[in-house]
Amino acid sequence: MDDLLREFVTETNESLDLVDVELVRFEQDPNNAKIINNVFRLVHTIKGTCGFLGLPRLEALAHAAEALMGRFRDGVPATSDAVTLILAAIDRIKTILDALAQEQREPDGSDADLIGGLTQMAAGLSAPKMPPAEAPERSVGTLVDQVLERPLLPGEDSLDDLERAFRATPVELPQRTKSPLAEVGKDDDQKAGNQSIRVSVETLEKLMTMVSELVLTRNQLLEIGRRHEESEFKTPLQRLSNVTAELQEGVMKTRMQPIGNAWQKLPRIVRDLCNELGKQIDLDMQGAETELDRQVLDLIKDPLTHMLRNSADHGLETPEERRAAGKPERGRIRLSAWHEGGFIVIQVADDGRGLNTERIKAKALTQGLVTEADLEKLTEAQIQKFIFAPGFSTAAEVTSVSGRGVGMDVVRNNIDQIGGTIDVRSVPGVGVSFTIKIPLTLAIVSALIVEAAGDRFAIPQLAVVELVRARADSDHRIERIKDTAVLRLRDKLLPLARLSSLLGLDRAPADDLESGFIVVTQVGPQTFGIVVDAVFHTEEIVVKPMSSKLRHIAMFCGNTILGDGSVIMIIDPNGIAQALGRTAASQLQGAATEEGAVAATASEQNTSLLVFRAGSSQPKAVPLALVTRLEEIDARKIELSNGRHMVQYRGQLMPLVAMNADVRVRAEGAQPLLVFSDGMRSMALVVDEIVDIVEDRLDIEVAGRDGVLGSAIIKGQATEIIDVGHFLPLAFEDWFRRKEQKAALRPRSVLLVDDSPFFRNMLAPVLQAAGFEVTTAGSGAEALAHVDRGGAVDIVITDIEMPEMDGFAFTQALRRHPRGAELPVIGLSSIVSAEAIARGRQVGFHDYVAKFDRQGLIAALKEQSEFGRAA
Amino acid sequence: MNSTETGTQREYVTAQIGGELIGLPILRVQDVFIPERPTHVPLAPSEIAGVLNLRGRIVTLIDMRRRLGLAPSSDDKARLAIGVETRGESYGLLIDAIGEVLRLDDDVREPNPVNLDPRLARVSAGIHRLNEQLLMVIDVDRVLDVAPESVAA
Q1: Is residue B126 part of a domain?
Q2: What is the CATH number assigned to the segment(s) A260-439?
Q3: What's the ipTM?
Q4: Given strand A517-523, what is the order of strands in its sheet?
């Protein structure tokens, strides 16, 4: 294409984007003469250039649009219709420009419709007071008589008039009064030209490719350097390495663009949507200056637009509905972006009605994504995730705006492709927010080089949370439930998968997971462990796309050349996550919400449960967190002493307690046991069979009898939840009790605050057994209400990790309450870290106890109640 | 067999593979190289012999024996690869030995015999009868049409 023409197309497109934005602003702020002058000038420039380049169609359109804008400039109030018409003209200009860029000539066609409309509108709008612009004395240069090759239509301005008007338009050129030097760097509007140059994207891409090659060569040299300890190359190599890194950073920077570029078209879209849908929408954009790689930027433009349309169309209610719901009539969509580590986070939030979970459920059922039984057990958050399923669209009626059947799944696909994640959070009646997290750049990433089955692979560092060495005797133990291997890592269970099995590389079924390293990986809300044979180092790798013949392999997202010149595959954590299956996804939901700083409400929180059978065919379950270990021992090792079954276990005698009378301690073969430990003491519960570990909501429905807290529906089956607290004293009578406990004093009232009904049910009897009166509260607010009502309370025990108001916040609130200022508070947490303890002190905890340390808790209670008495 | 009067001549790079003689249009051949240290790609179609780094480019190796449905190689001797490109991607077709460049008349190229093994017929663009042997003309694009691309998406 002709260079001149190409430049014209690029520049004009940019100007038009600006015109779009400015016009929408003008419509909202019709008295702002500065805006309309700006728009007027832009359109005039376009018209002038078109004339110069001999593009009559564009010129005529621009002329007609300019004429109408001239009316606004003269003080005629801008009507929505008029603005719509001008925007339509601008769209047409854009279409023509596109064709022009491709065919290098104006496409055939007529714009009589638009021009007619524009001129008619211009004629219809009469300037009220302001006299026609008459400021020839301010004109610079001579007016050349313009000739129009047709008679003027009614209402049309002569070219001369327009030209005069244009010249009369005050242009914000640098004011001559100041010294030109002082201007430099001040007036951004006009100044940018000198500070930046236009470089074609192609040149930048090439530069980037070359830098990538340079990085590879540098890596190769470094690799050689590593092999030769003492080498005179060492110093220059280090220097080269640093310069390369700086160069890489510099080139990356040239590719960075503010995300605002992708947002530029959005105000216009929202405006059009307002008209189309009859809604009033405010678009609020924050963090438009946040920069990201232009390649990534291009890829998220469409998803963002789609999400915005969705929010406007489905998310926000009509003004009437909003009024009825007691909300302001104007809906609000907030678009924000910020940097977070190597990621950019983009959020699209509306204050609309929220996702309709019922409808999502119904749709998920009809589409066969889930069975009715499974649906029952899903949390709200899990149900909401269905909107990302392929072909999912809940819009009851297909509108022209969105809901064409391609929906959030397309958005999710696009985002997956660039290694990003998307999450949705919705509160009924309050709004929906989508959070997208994408890497800043795709070209060069830091990766962990690992080995599996003799081959090396790269795992993008961004997905890696930590590395764990699993050993049989360490805390990070690999446990197995049937064929599923899981890692217990700080009270969370992570599904494990061997990389070599996922890749089909296992020659023999090796299940020696202990020997490997576990790469704890997080993809969106999912966390899982990838077991590899060895971990080498991290390396900056240049991502090269997979060959089209290999792109269908979901496990890989690209390949790269390592420092030693060999090619290795880059593992796609998304692919691994998918391979781990939907079960894993749902299992981990509970664990993940915690990470996402989005605490689900209490009832949605899942508990890991160990399901087993003992005595009857009805499944029984116990929260996994309470179980220290699962063991299978040789039944012959079980000894009978004093009428009780015992077994030597880790150098101690461990009593075995049968679940109930129907459970027989086996005489031979393997005997499955659930081991509970507390300090030095351990006891084991004898069961018939360990069935599974499941993640489910725990709603205990029926009150139980001895040893059973009640029943709950777990994975569709009525399951007895056993009360571990009942069995522990059977092994050691004094498990909970202390000798000094029997002091016949007035029972002290304990207020137990815990969001989990399970722990409330579990701890309350234990505390009662220890001689306390117990009141329970499911949340900080509930507990405060109890205090407020004047309910009995001498000591407060509060969980730390609670949604909405955590234990710290609750304690602070309690301290402000007149009755609560002096109350002893014991913090209860599964996480006992020095930091948490310090924080606890600060907010006024008197003690801090690990959640399952009953002895510690009772001891702390005694201490505090003594203290309370003394005080 | 007529000599050339009207027909155009084409040049072919010939190669031996599992006892067969094949010819590739010379314009499609970038280079011939010894594939060094190829990386096995797990889960890849069986015809993909791996990927390797050839002067900074990642080349996908196609196992021509498998592609053509021939018996796998019995000896472990270093093989050769013919480098070809399509749509910006580089491929290496693994062969046993490289032969000479032949200039052959298009006119005398014969269509595939109807009873040709379908795996061969799939990639063959016709047969040239040479003095001692038959030469199968390989359609490079069809050879490269390996993976069911629909699996992606």
Answers
A1: yes
A2: 3.30.565.10
A3: 0.85
A4: A464-469, A517-523, A526-532, A492-498, A484-489, A478-481
pTM: 0.46
Report the distance separating Cα A747 and Cα A15, nearest Å. Answer: 79
Q: What fold is seen in the domain A201-258? A: Helix Hairpins (1.10.287)
pLDDT along chain A (871 residues), means of 10: 73 81 80 78 78 79 81 76 82 84 79 82 61 42 49 54 60 45 44 66 83 83 81 85 87 83 84 85 87 82 84 85 86 86 81 84 80 78 78 54 56 75 83 83 80 90 83 66 72 80 70 74 80 86 80 84 85 82 42 34 54 82 76 81 78 79 77 74 82 71 66 76 75 53 57 78 71 81 84 84 81 82 79 69 76 70 61 40
**Cβ-contact B13, B125 below 8 angstroms:** no
CATH superfamily for A741-870 is Response regulator (3.40.50.2300)
Q: How does strand B97-105 pair with strand B9-17? A: antiparallel
- Which residue's entry shows tokens 């002569």? A158
Q: Are the Cβ atoms of B39 and A569 closer than 8 angstroms?
A: yes
A447-595 maps to CATH 2.160.10.10: no
Across the interface, which of A216, A550, A568 has its CB nearest the CB of B56?
A216
Q: For residues A411 and A419, is the Cβ–Cβ distance under 8 A?
A: no
Decide the pairing of beta strands A652-658 and A681-686. parallel
Interface residues from chain A to B (CB-CB < 8 Å): 213, 216, 455, 503-505, 544, 547-553, 555-556, 559, 561, 565-569
Is B75 inside any structural domain? yes
B2 within some domain:
no
Say if CB A461 and CB A447 are below 8 A apart: yes
Domain ranges of chain A: 3-172, 201-258, 260-439, 447-595, 602-731, 741-870
CATH class of A602-731: mainly beta
Contact A425, A431 (CB under 8 A): no
Tell me the residue range of the domain where B27 lies: 9-147
Same fold flag, A201-258 and A260-439:
no
Element (H, E) at A672: strand A670-678
Q: Say if B88 is an interface residue toward chain A (CB within 8 Å).
A: no
At residue A577, the pLDDT reads 82
Angular region, A650: left φ>0, alpha ψ -120 to 50, beta rest: left
Q: Of B114, B106, B101, nearest to B2 (Cα)?
A: B106
Which of B39, B40, B55 is the best residue to mutate to test the A interface, defined by the most A CB atoms within 10 Å of its own CB? B39
A658: alpha, beta or left, given left = phi > 0 and alpha = psi -120 to 50? beta
- Distance from A73 to chain B by nearest Cα, in Å? 52
Decide if B82 is inside a domain: yes
CA dihedral of residues A212, A216, A217, A223 (deg, nearest 10): 160
Would you say A527 and A540 are in contact if contact means Cβ atoms under 8 Å apart? no
Q: Which of B37, B46, B53, B151 to mutate to test the interface with A (most CBs of A within 10 A)?
A: B53
What local confidence, expressed as pLDDT, does residue A456 receive?
92
* CATH code of residue B137: 2.40.50.180
Q: How far apart are CA A53 and CA A47, in angstroms?
A: 10
DSSP-assigned letters across all residues of A520-582: EEEETTEEEEEEESEEEEEEEEE-BPPPTTTTT-TTEEEEEE-TTS-EEEEE-HHHHHHHHHH
Instruction: Give the whole-angstrom CA distance, residue A522 versus residue A577.
Output: 9
Q: B114 with B98: CB under 8 angstroms?
A: no
Does the domain at residues A3-172 carry the CATH identifier 1.20.120.160? yes
